[in-house]
């Protein structure tokens, strides 16, 4: 992301949160077939906040579109129309969300949001007009003005378009404001913001936007939130003070104000009348203020300077906030430092200068240091762990859009969305999941009539699940579609010339794995979703970049399943250090099943001459590292060394080494670029620095297994 001004960063962050929330609410409402009152209020509030924030930032196209969508939900909220095309309303919300996300992407890259939303505004306004007509309501009545207008005179009405500089709101005289129940409340509120969260004037402006449609009359100090350079300091020192009238009860007001981000304290008092308000301008002062504020006001451009991360408030008891958002690059750097600390600890405790010496006090201090470092590592890694829920929920949109365009029926079932993974994993797993689920809908799920003929429900099911398994997370994408056609895949593989052995020797799983080959597609016609032979090969490269593996299997007529295995963390792991001659290697502990010294009768040869041994009732191949890496000083006899039984992709592999050195935490470092091409031929996946300062190459049993298959 390009370096943006602090105010822009806050705007991007908060708008992204609202857009994600809007998409999920809209999809859930469409799935249930109705917009519940709380959903209507949620969408309205989100669009209202985006409208106000965008207007303040002078992003008019975003603001106007948000205003148009907001009008639809204002109409639903106020008049409760009986006839609602939930799917059509969802389309409008999602289209607006897509447009705004596109504009956020531009801001992220340092560009300006310059796309026009005029066509979307017109179509949205036209939809609302027809919506009103269909429900027997006058399409030309401005509900907002009608709501604020009473038999009494209205001095200042809300404009039809979102006002960029409307900091003073007056609907009617306070003594004439009446709620539906005939009562009116007067409140004083003082809001305190976290000073390190930055941009308190933005927060204050957001409060005004939220209260705009709920308050009869509203006044606040400081009056000039944006244009007064001292306003932010005043708010930090004294709080943002508001006096207003409304028909809402005290708990409703508190809930409304509690939505403010970076709030560290809230004082809310109900007053008996406006006479108790410390600040309530006279009619003459109001008139003068309206004239003064009728001229254009341009927000002061803040200086570009580093901004502390915005703090997300969890409680308003005046104590420190319970949630904080931190830039990912800061977490990355912190993780790097912890890794360096792990290496430094090893270099101290395993220093050759003290080897063999009895140093009881040193050993005690070293154990304490190891304990502290371990806890620090766990804490930092926990900071980086985030649930897969947000990534999983985004897949609902993929299924919804594809089923509508393809005329199919399918639902997405999420299981284990609370499973946590490293932040880097969530950033890179989204695209692979999207391609796999699109593949499941396009190639797997059949048309409704075909499913009925096959004795299946019209609606297909795609199950996206995740679970922790040891030191990795296992993600499964399973559908109940027609499955894969082995003959068709094999025919395509034959045409592309990617077969490396006789066809009859390929297992079903090997054949199905051809779909991950670059440019591979069994689609006869190119469509919006498939047929170009791109996508699934990207899946494999992304998964491998995360240190993971992917397998696919299918049951013709029953469906297919894709299994992704990814390490929970990519930085620090436990490894078994081994010696082969004068060289040292490391194997991740998570891959090791057991180790033992074999006897003569344990080893046998298969028909091809491959050394094997039995593990869990099945023959298991052996890899001699000294032969693979041409190390002449290593032990030759299997009965004199150690055999490590490793597991990869549900297969066992025996790795023969001279001796075990021991288990230690290792910091995974990438191998230098100039030898990366060789790693595919050696099974090496990275390197680490040992306590004596030497470099140990990290062996990936899965890659070694691949070498045997080839």
Strand and helix map with partners:
Layout: H1 6-32, H2 37-56, H3 60-79, H4 86-108, H5 118-134, H6 143-148, E1 169-170, E2 185-193, H7 200-211, E3 215-221, H8 231-238, E4 240-246, H9 250-258, E5 263-271, H10 283-292, E6 311-312, E7 323-324, H11 328-349, H12 360-384, E8 385-387, H13 389-406, E9 410-415, E10 420-422, H14 423-444, H15 448-453, E11 460-469, E12 472-479, H16 486-496, H17 508-512, H18 536-545, E13 549-555, E14 559-567, E15 572-580, E16 583-588, E17 592-596, E18 604-605, E19 611-615, E20 618-624, H19 625-628, E21 642-648, E22 651-657, E23 659-667, H20 676-682, E24 684-689, E25 695-699, H21 701-709
Report on the structure:
The chain is flat, with a radius of gyration of 32 Å. Strand 18 and strand 19 form a beta hairpin. By secondary structure, the protein is an alpha+beta fold. Strands 17-21-22-20-19-18 form a six-stranded mixed sheet. 32% of the residues are buried. About 9% of the residues have low confidence. Helices cover 41% and strands 21% of the residues.
């Amino acid at each position: 992301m390009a370096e943006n001004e602090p105010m822009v960063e806050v705007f991007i962050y908060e708008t992204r949160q609202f857009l994600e929330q809007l998409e999920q609410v809209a999809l859930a409402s469409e799935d249930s077939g109705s917009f519940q009152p709380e959903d209507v209020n949620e969408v309205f509030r989100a669009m209202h906040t985006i409208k106000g924030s965008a207007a303040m930032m002078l992003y008019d196209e975003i603001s106007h579109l948000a205003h148009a969508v907001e009008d639809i939900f204002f109409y639903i909220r106020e008049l409760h129309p009986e006839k609602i095309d939930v799917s059509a309303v969802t389309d409008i919300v999602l289209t607006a969300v897509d447009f705004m996300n596109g504009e956020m992407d531009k801001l992220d890259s340092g560009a300006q949001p310059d796309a026009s939303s005029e066509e979307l505004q017109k179509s949205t306004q036209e939809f609302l007009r027809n919506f009103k007509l269909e429900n027997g309501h006058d399409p030309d009545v401005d509900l907002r003005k009608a709501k604020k207008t009473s038999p009494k005179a209205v001095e200042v009405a809300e404009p039809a378009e979102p006002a960029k500089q409307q900091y003073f709101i007056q609907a009617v005289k306070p003594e004439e404001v009446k709620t539906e129940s005939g009562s009116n409340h007067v409140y004083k509120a003082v809001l305190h913001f976290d000073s390190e969260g930055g941009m308190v004037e933005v927060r204050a402006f957001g409060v005004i936007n939220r209260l705009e449609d709920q308050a009869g009359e509203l006044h606040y100090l400081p009056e000039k939130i944006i244009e007064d350079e001292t306003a932010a300091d005043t708010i930090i020192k004294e709080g943002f003070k508001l006096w207003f009238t409304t028909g809402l009860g005290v708990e409703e007001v508190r809930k409304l104000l509690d939505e403010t981000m970076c709030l560290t304290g809230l004082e809310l008092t109900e007053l008996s009348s406006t006479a108790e308000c410390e600040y309530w301008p006279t009619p003459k002062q109001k008139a003068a203020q309206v004239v003064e504020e009728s001229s254009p006001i341009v927000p002061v451009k803040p200086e570009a300077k580093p901004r502390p991360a915005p703090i997300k408030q969890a409680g308003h008891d005046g104590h420190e906030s319970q949630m904080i958002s931190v830039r990912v690059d800061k977490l990355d750097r912190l993780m790097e430092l912890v890794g360096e600390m792990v290496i430094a600890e090893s270099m101290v405790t395993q220093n050759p200068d003290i080897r063999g010496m009895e140093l009881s006090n040193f050993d005690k201090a070293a154990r304490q240091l190891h304990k502290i470092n371990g806890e620090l590592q766990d804490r930092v890694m926990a900071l980086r762990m985030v649930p897969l829920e947000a990534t999983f929920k985004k897949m609902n949109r993929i299924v919804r859009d594809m089923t509508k365009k393809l005329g199919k029926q399918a639902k997405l079932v999420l299981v284990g969305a609370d499973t946590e993974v490293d932040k880097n994993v969530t950033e890179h797993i989204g695209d692979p999941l999207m391609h796999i689920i699109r593949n499941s809908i396009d190639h797997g799920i059949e048309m409704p009539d075909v499913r009925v003929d096959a004795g299946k429900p019209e609606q297909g099911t795609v199950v996206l699940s995740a679970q922790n398994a040891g030191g990795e997370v296992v993600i499964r994408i399973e559908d109940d579609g027609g499955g894969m056609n082995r003959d068709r895949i094999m025919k395509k593989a034959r045409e592309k010339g990617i077969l490396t052995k006789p066809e009859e020797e390929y297992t079903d799983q090997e054949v199905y794995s051809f779909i991950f080959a670059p440019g591979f597609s069994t689609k006869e016609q190119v469509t919006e979703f498939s047929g170009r032979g791109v996508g699934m090969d990207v899946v494999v490269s992304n998964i491998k970049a995360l240190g993971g593996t992917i397998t696919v299997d299918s049951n013709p007529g029953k469906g297919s399943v894709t299994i992704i295995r990814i390490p929970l963390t990519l930085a620090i792991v436990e490894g078994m250090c081994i010696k082969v001659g004068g060289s040292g290697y490391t194997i991740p502990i998570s891959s090791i099943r057991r180790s033992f010294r074999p006897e003569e009768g344990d080893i046998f040869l298969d028909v091809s001459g491959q050394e094997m041994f039995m593990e869990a009732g099945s023959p298991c191949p052996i890899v001699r590292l000294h032969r693979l890496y041409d190390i002449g000083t290593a032990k030759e006899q299997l009965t004199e060394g150690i055999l490590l039984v490793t597991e990869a992709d549900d297969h066992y592999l025996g790795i023969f080494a001279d001796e075990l050195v021991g288990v230690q935490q290792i910091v995974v470092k990438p191998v230098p670029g100039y030898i990366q091409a060789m790693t595919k031929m050696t099974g090496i996946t990275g390197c680490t620095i040992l306590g004596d300062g030497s470099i140990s190459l990290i062996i990936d049993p899965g890659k070694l297994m691949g070498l045997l298959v080839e």
